[in-house]
DNA sequence: TATCACTATATCGGACCGATATATATCGAT
DNA sequence: ATCGATATATATCGGTCCGATATAGTGATA
């Protein structure tokens, strides 16, 4: 699912400018997807050329035109086709966890500080999301929101309960046999 | 943290070819990061030019040279500096959840099938990861692995316990006027 | 003997992001 | 009254990264 398709999808909720679509990405999809202007504006231009959206330019005195985009029947049809495709696998990237892969190159104090900060970050994101949850109207959005909160909570608990595994100094012995499975 | 830096990091564990680095990404970092050959090979070339890795070409009869890369002292220093930077925020993308944002455009049966498949996917990935967990030697890797398993488990449980929210038919009322804002 | 999976390299086109540029408007702080 | 921050609103450039594709030998399995 590319940004172009997602823009089309957001326009099924009503007409919008590129700027408003960017806000929609942040407000209702932040935990699931994000997109920058450098993807949104070209997408909108392409969708217009393809006839999947129409563009009404509101000229404003001494300001650049406000371009309001609406989805066309052809666009609606196209989007409907797209969301019936099997979704691609989730993608997750974490610089934090990548750094921890190399925790043997860091001082113990640094590892602890890293984990403390990450927990704080997760907590803050979870709180922001929780607050936003109440504002959402649709069931879909509530569901999405709840998913995000759950994941942050799980991450926080895991870090708290298992941080000792990489904070403790490595046992100086011949490596013990690990019980496989 | 870009792929180039991560390649440098993986070389702190020992010398490797580009192909082996790709395998390392899949075997020990899959749930945290991934990289394709189209990123790895150029990264290795650039690191060589920069003097952060050295390259020993093992010429093989009737096959392209096997290029074995090793990290240099300068590379080690550079990487150490890099992992002391504050890590960027996690990034998560889910076509599955994005699709669910538009579940009002799908038939209830399709939504259920989508969720069933996703749960199956998560279960499979979790099992693969669990199995791999036993094989890992270092505490860091055990920790990473456990993190992944925990997250998959949390996702599965959330989907199972909350799917009714979007599977249930929406209450039939006058449709409120919506906008993307 | 054919097919598959693995080792091993590399590039092209395209998707996407971060930084930057350009204006104006509004609102609170100094 | 002015200053800085934030918001509205557009758009592009350089660069990173991925998916698809190309090439080619080896060994195992069917």
UniProtKB/TrEMBL annotation, chains A, B:
<dbReference type="InterPro" id="IPR005149">
    <property type="entry name" value="Tscrpt_reg_PadR_N"/>
</dbReference>
<feature type="domain" description="Transcription regulator PadR N-terminal">
    <location>
        <begin position="8"/>
        <end position="79"/>
    </location>
</feature>
<dbReference type="InterPro" id="IPR036388">
    <property type="entry name" value="WH-like_DNA-bd_sf"/>
</dbReference>
<protein>
    <submittedName>
        <fullName>PadR family transcriptional regulator</fullName>
    </submittedName>
</protein>
<dbReference type="Pfam" id="PF03551">
    <property type="entry name" value="PadR"/>
</dbReference>
<dbReference type="InterPro" id="IPR036390">
    <property type="entry name" value="WH_DNA-bd_sf"/>
</dbReference>
